[in-house]
Amino acid sequence: MPYLTTPPGALTAAATGAGRLGLGIPGYAHPLLAPVEWAELTRPGTPLHWAVLNVAEGPGGRPDPHCTEAAAKLHAAGGTVLGHLAMRDGSRSFGELVSDAHRFRDWYGVGGFYLADAPADRADLESVRRVADTLRGLGEDLRIVLGHGTHPYEGYADAADQLVTFSGAWADYRWSQVAEWTAEYPPERFCHLVHGVPRTHLEEAMRIARWQGAGTIWFTDRRAVGDRDPWASMPGYWDEIVSRIGTGVLE
Predict the structure, then answer these.
(1) CA proximity to 51, closest of 136, 135, 113
(2) In this structure, is residue 3 part of a structural domain?
(3) Which tens digit of pLDDT belongs to each residue from 208-228?
(4) Which of 143, 172, 225, 232 could form a disulfide with 29 if both were Cys (CB 3.0 to 4.6 A apart)?
């Protein structure tokens, strides 16, 4: 069994339906390659928290009309589009990240930013906080998600709206352990991204996410084989996962 904790209020939330799980899409393929995936995100009742737009490891060198259209449709449907900023574990400079962020805002009108491969060590906290604070200054109510992929130093929880505390394979997730400090925060502060989840284990994966205190998830049966990106397309059980956690669905 995975190591599970019960955050304050978790049992009450489960009983009342509060704190329902939602979806965070870490980066579908380009809209030309994944038109169905992007269109499905605008379906009424889809429990979408956010979707990451990654044109070319960032905003690209010039506005992409296909990405502009996809982002506009998702905005019109009430969805939140996050621009993908590649931190590369802290190797990208402050200036590069802010420049990419400006282009995402100017070209695609994103509602926030996903800082991919964000550092997790205490030593990098202040530099990440500086980037996050600057990004918030680019508009009102911008959402900042730090894509650590693992549990970072606790101080990062105050630097962003949400932390990705797990990103990886189902074989690792089902035996994963959650950092004890996360129990002090509500589920909407954490996200889990898991690939290679079989349909037969979907309910188990959702149960792990709830008990480990994650409010946003992305589970897919696609696998990371070779250089294949498991996040590029929707899972084979898309309809099922939407029906399980969508608006008005009893859990």
Answers:
(1) 113
(2) no
(3) 999 999 999 999 999 998 889
(4) 232
User: pTM score, two decimals?
Assistant: 0.90
Per the domain annotation, does 217 fall within a domain?
Answer: yes
The single-letter code of the amino acid at 94 is F
Q: CA geometry: angle at 135 spanning 190 and 114, to 5°? A: 40
Identify the CA nearest to 218 among candidates 245, 187, 194, 249: 194
Cβ-contact 138, 102 below 8 angstroms: yes
Assess whether pLDDT exceeds 60 at residue 9.
no
* Domain hosting residue 223, numbered range: 10-245
Distances (CA, A) of 111 to 94, 158, 166: 20, 19, 23
Give the count of domains, the chain.
Answer: 1
Q: Which CATH number covers residue 191? A: 3.20.20.80
Helix ranges restricted to H, the chain: 10-16, 35-40, 65-76, 94-108, 125-136, 170-173, 202-211, 238-245
